[in-house]
Every structure is written in structure tokens, then in C-alpha cells.
Amino acid sequence: MRRFAVALFALLSVHALAQTHVPDVIYLKQAGCAYTMDVFTPKTPNHKAIVWMVSGGWFSHHEDINPGFAKLLTDKGYTVFEVVHGSQPKYTIPEIVPMVRRAIRFVRSLAGTYDFSPNAIGVTGASAGGHLSLEIAGLGDDGDPNAKDPVDKLSSRVNAVVAFMPPTDFENWGTDGVTPIQVPNMKIYMPAFGVTDLTPKEVVQKVAHDVSPIILVKPGFPPTLIVHGAKDALVPLQQAKKIDAAFAAANVTHKLVVVPTGGHDLGTMMGGMTAAFDWFDTNLTVTKN
Known about the structure:
Blueprint: H1 2-13, E1 20-30, E2 33-41, E3 49-54, H2 67-74, E4 79-84, H3 93-109, H4 111-114, E5 121-126, H5 128-138, E6 160-164, H6 201-210, E7 224-229, H7 237-249, E8 254-259, H8 266-271, H9 273-283
Parallel strand pairs: 3-4, 3-5, 5-6, 6-7, 7-8
Antiparallel strand pairs: 1-2, 2-4
């Protein structure tokens, strides 16, 4: 997952042309640390925003901020926010998710500053970033009207989702009843779950359940596109098919694009990019506040 993020940066950054780039915008101060996002603005805005979760294996690093990826979207008029979050092993997924939900609230607070509709915000990411995008979508709320911080009074809801090769069901990883801790190539990511080989099975099962986006699927879930590679050797294609079936059962607007030659790699992402653009163009609608 981490190698994927590095490769994406290397490939796309060479295509980055001139665009307005505001680095290191602080969206959260916590425990003496500041967490930031970079903002990329288009020459001619379409009044819509896309939030990209900078995450691979639930690692997030400023070096993976990708102007080239942003340029693909700013060329179409989108304002782009690339969000860096606290990384494993220091932070677990249950600690990371509130951070990225805060990032959505903060992005919404910037609607007037960057000329986009607060009701036209999409979220996307690849691998762990796709997982976090689905978590954000499923946990969206209207904000706390009694919060001291004005940002916390704002909604964390998003209006459309594109998730590339995302984990979706950690209770049933490739096969029903199997958790990732039982799979050798997933061992490196277990600090993100806060579990080890010595963790009691019942605890592992609870954690796997609690951080699975599939449990959040219900009517009203934002329109969601899943892009997955047929040859993905890290995140099973079964994960995409399971959540796609859950979306269908809940009458959620949804689509699954399977890239026939794609693995857990850039080929899958590039193979789904046109569908991603179409998804956001169709499902993000600019409305008045």
C-alpha cells in the first residue's frame, strides 16, 4: 500500500503544470501536533471540491502530496484538498478516522475562501485512502451546534465517493470468517488495527468489525464508485464485490468498475480514472446554501 502511494507520486508529479498550490494548511491541532492539507486551485473553478486521502497502508506523509494528481482534477475545474493524517503505528484506524472527518469539516469551512459549494464535496483515495474515504462517507454527520470550535459545528458529510481498491470488510478477508491478521502479506499493517498475533481472537473480531466500511452501508450513503483490479494480490477483489452488493441491497447509487489487468497498482487507478471523473461530474451538484 505504501509503495503504491510512492509510485503514484513519481508517475503523476512529472505531469504537473502550473497551478495554484497552497501548502501546509492546518486543519487540526492535537496533542502538540499540527495536521495539514495542501490546497490546489483551478484557473476556472467549477465550484466543486475533491478531497484526496493521502494514505497507503494507513501511513500518510507530506512527501506523498501529489501535484500531478491534483492537476488532473484542477484542469476540470475542481478545487483539490490533499489531506495528510496521523500514521500508524503511532495512530490506529479508530484514531485516524476522526482526524479525516475533521478534515472534511475544515474543507467545508473554506468554501467561501476557495469558491466552491459546501454541498458539492467529493472524497477519494486509493487502498487505505479508499478505505478512509468510505469511512468518512458512512459516518457523516451534521456537526455539533454546541461545539466551541466553529469548524466542529459544520457537517462532515460528503456528496460523492470514489474509492480505488479499498478494503471494505475486515471480518471476511477474501474468505468468510478470515481476518487480515491471518494473512501473511497483511501483517505489516496490523499496527493500524492495534492488534498482534497475541491479541485474543474475540478482540480481533471486534476491531475488524468496527473498522469495516461495509457495516456503515445504509440508505442515504453517498453515491459511491468502487474501482478495483481483477489481479489485485493484496486487497481481494471480493472486497469490492461485497460492498457493491451491500450498496445494491441498500438502494445506494453505486457502480463497480473492475480493471481486467489491474493489480494493487497504478494500472488499476489509471484504468478507472475516466470513470472517476464522470462519477464526480455526475454526482456533485452545485446548489445554494
